[in-house]
Amino acid sequence: MELTGKVAVVTGSGRGLGLAYAQELARRGAAVVVNDVDAEVAQAAVDAITADGGSAVAEVVPVGSSEAAQALVDRAVAEFGRLDVLVNNAGILRDTTLWKMTDEQFDAVITTHLRGTFTCTRAAAVKLREQGEGGRIICIGSPTGQVGNFGQTNYAAAKAGIVGMVRTWAMELARAQITVNAVVPVAATAMTETVPFLEPYVTALKNGDPLPPYARKQLGFGSAQDVAGLIAFLASDEAAGITGQAIGIGGDRLALWTHPVETVVEFADGTGWSAEAIADAWGPTFEASKQTVGQQFEPES
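Structure tokens predicted for SDR family NAD(P)-dependent oxidoreductase:
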């Protein structure tokens, strides 16, 4: 997956998954604009990339506003002459249950994840269409956005919204040969360190110990580096025919998520559906096909 000559912006790439994405793109030849809210963290990421022979600069700005998005695109063009790839990775967590969540906690997550993905993609789309040579937009989703997770109202809403926007943008930008896809990663990061059932696996990775097959396959859990290959693939010319997809990756697991589809359909006979008719039909027709919430895993043997 040769990316020499490509220019990428990776938001939230000072550490964690974003850093792994930026390093992998740079390793394959792309020039990268690293982004973080912490100047020291951003510069450390740039130093790590350049020390390995890559090309990178830092743009320190909190993702969310239109001004921040434009600054990232402008920096790519000013430093490297163009833009080819945008990876929308920046995000924060403000987890708590619905009845405890404040307006500020909700808004902060929506601003960074959802609005930030929108503003950065809009700014990138304008530049990519102006260049007229196609491009790649990669948005980061989450299993929480696909199936929900306890204590993550704001994060679930943002990540589900991102996948919805990806499907729309894939249609709107197809004529310009700009692909738009969502990556749904699972990896050891600061965001997953707080998940109790993942704690032993996070600790194992920190200690340099191998993860058991159950973690890497059934849970689809691994390191940030395990996810980075999918980012490089979607950024490459090899992925020119892939757009509008939600692709899961983690550990040894690679999966294609379906779009929401109707699983059971029943029709009334020209009369519409009264509450009583729905009650009568629910048990025999719909009950067995009710959908689960949250991630479902086979127990570890």
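The radius of gyration is 21 Å.
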